[in-house]
Write a structure and sequence with these properties.
The chain is built from 11 helices and 7 strands. The protein folds into 3 domains: about 170 residues, Up-down Bundle (Four Helix Bundle (Hemerythrin (Met), subunit A)), CATH 1.20.120; about 80 residues; about 150 residues, Histidine kinase-like ATPase, C-terminal domain (Heat Shock Protein 90). Keywords: Coiled coil, Kinase, Membrane, Phosphoprotein, Transferase, Transmembrane, Transmembrane helix. One of its GO terms (cellular component) is plasma membrane.
């Protein structure tokens, strides 16, 4: 038999008993709430009646004072009577469900109307000089000015409402007592039901559940499980699942050991590869150094010999001029020397100069990875100001304007290297301005909320210009060494941006560019905003 079936049998009868008790309890609760609502209604009605009595008594006292002081202007205030009308209307609304009380309220309202008419007439008589008559009338024991009819009606109304309130309060108490007994009965019934269910559970299920719990504990501790629980219910299925999980965990542990051994082997291999890479890097640097050293000597010789040949050709031209040769032969020899030999020598010297520049660039590029940085917090605004001041001659020569945004946030990095990075970007912006329009360069930063760099530990700066721009096809080659787009505009070997990229990445940042050909470029540099957390 399934546990669900057993549970239904154990719970069905006690649950039915509890449902009946809960239904009775809910019904009693509804009766109690209804009785409380009516008792509260009686209190509200009596309070409203009291609120109607007070202004009428105050008006009666005011009439006496007005007559005694001969001040007719203080009588018959329209705002007071309007308030009384509102209160009387509210009282009528509250007792609209009770015909007897409603009738009394209407009589009270008529008494109020009669008293108001007497109040108006008293004011008119007082204004006509009939004060003595009013005084005699006020001294009389009977009459509208005494409010006796109004007060008697209101007292009868309140007394009836008090009686209704007492009845309603008694119903509230009775409902509460009924609730209390039902709650006691429900609690006792729940306790008895729980006890019976626990007894049935203990006898039929608890022993097997204890075995299941023990197996679960053994599984969590990695110990062998006890024998499987017999039966065909969910407890048996769970125990079987525990045994199968134990078998799979054993197999997984065996595979994990194999994976761990493989990972350790891969880690050793990776360490060997890193060692080889470091050795290869050192070998490459030594190779670059030795090649540059070995190439410099023949380049110097080429440059020197080309200059010697240049001087020799000049001497040769002088000798040609002194020889007694026909003018066509002399002119042909001069043309041969000046046009062919001198042109070839200039090509050789330019190639030597270019080769020397490339060798120096290769050395600088190889040394960029060996420089020991001394990072500190940097005042980027001061660095930008120094760079612009150092380039002021080039900027004036280009008739350009450089703008530095205020409040550039600080960055964390090596002062010399970061200044070289920013100086290279500003120098490129100046060199590649469009001569057909006034140059404008901006040095600023991107607010953290707008930055494409998601890491909050980086701050992003930019150098924006309205120069020649970069074609879309060339964007992927911008940071590759010896790649030059506008080679005829400015001198260089094409390693500046490659060095910049390497320096920025060694600082843990990144660099990228956005550009539109013919409109300008914007280089972004993201640098650490603070020292790393140790």
């Amino acid at each position: 038999m399934r546990l669900l079936t057993k549970g239904l049998l154990i719970v069905a009868i006690p649950s039915l008993f509890e449902i009946l008790l809960l239904g009775a309890l809910f019904n009693s609760q509804a009766d109690a709430e209804d009785a409380e609502r009516w008792a509260s209604h009686s209190l509200q009605v009596m309070n409203q009646a009291a609120a109607l009595r007070e202004p009428m008594l105050l008006e009666a006292a005011r009439i006496r004072n007005a007559v005694l002081l001969d001040q007719p202007d203080t009588l018959s205030r329209s705002d007071m009577w309007a308030d009384i009308e509102v209160k009387a209307g509210e009282l009528a609304r509250l007792v609209s469900d009770n015909a007897g009380q409603g009738r009394i309220v209407r009589e009270v309202h008529e008494s109020i109307a009669r008293y108001r008419r007497w109040d108006d007439s008293a004011r008119e008589r007082l204004m006509r000089g009939q004060r003595d008559d009013l005084i005699r009338e006020l001294r009389e024991e009977q009459g509208q000015h005494r409010l006796s009819e109004f007060l008697n009606q209101l007292d009868n109304f309140v007394e009836e409402e008090r009686r209704l309130g007492a009845e309603r309060s008694e119903r509230v108490q009775a409902a509460r007592r009924s609730q209390t007994w039902l709650l006691i009965l429900a609690v006792l019934g729940s306790i008895v039901t729980a006890a019976l269910a626990s007894l049935a559970f203990t006898r039929s299920i608890a022993a097997r559940v204890n075995v299941l719990i023990s197996n679960a504990r053994r599984l969590s501790e990695g110990q062998p499980l006890a024998a499987r629980v017999g039966g065909s219910d969910e407890i048996c299925l769970l125990d079987d699942a525990l045994h199968r999980s134990s078998e799979r965990l054993t197999e997984a542990a065996r595979q994990a050991r194999g994976y761990r051994e493989e990972l350790e082997q891969r880690a050793r291999e990776l360490a060997d590869v890193n060692t080889d890479l470091r050795q290869q890097t050192q070998d490459n640097e030594m190779f670059i150094y030795s090649v540059s050293h070995d190439l410099r000597s023949p380049l110097v010789n080429l440059q020197g010999f080309s200059k010697e040949i240049t001087h020799a050709t000049r001497d040769l031209l002088d000798e040609v001029d002194r020889l007694a040769l026909p003018e066509p032969d002399r002119q042909r020899l001069r043309t041969l020397v000046e046009d062919d030999i001198h042109t070839s020598l200039r090509f050789i010297q330019n190639a030597v100069t270019r080769s020397a520049g490339i060798i120096d660039a290769m050395l600088r590029l190889s040394r960029a990875g060996r420089v020991e940085y001394q990072p500190v917090m940097l005042d980027m605004h001061a660095i930008a100001t120094r760079i612009v001041a150092a380039m002021s001659g080039s900027i004036r020569a280009k008739s350009a304007r450089v703008e530095i945004e205020d409040n550039l946030p600080p960055a964390y990095g090596d002062p010399t290297s970061v200044e070289q990075v920013l100086g290279n970007l500003v120098g490129n912006a100046v060199n590649y301005l469009d001569p057909s329009r006034p140059g404008h360069i901006t040095i600023g930063h991107v607010p953290q909320a707008d930055s494409v760099v998601a890491a909050p530990s980086l701050v992003t700066y930019f150098v924006r210009d309205n120069g020649l721009g970069i074609p879309a096809a060339y964007m992927d080659k911008m940071f590759i060494a010896f790649q030059r787009l506008h080679g005829n505009v400015a001198k260089g070997e094409g390693i500046g941006l490659a060095l910049v990229k390497r320096v920025v990445e060694r600082h843990g940042g990144r660099i990228w560019v956005e550009s539109v050909e013919g409109q300008g470029s914007c280089f972004y540099v993201a640098l650490p905003a603070r020292p790393p957390v140790s």
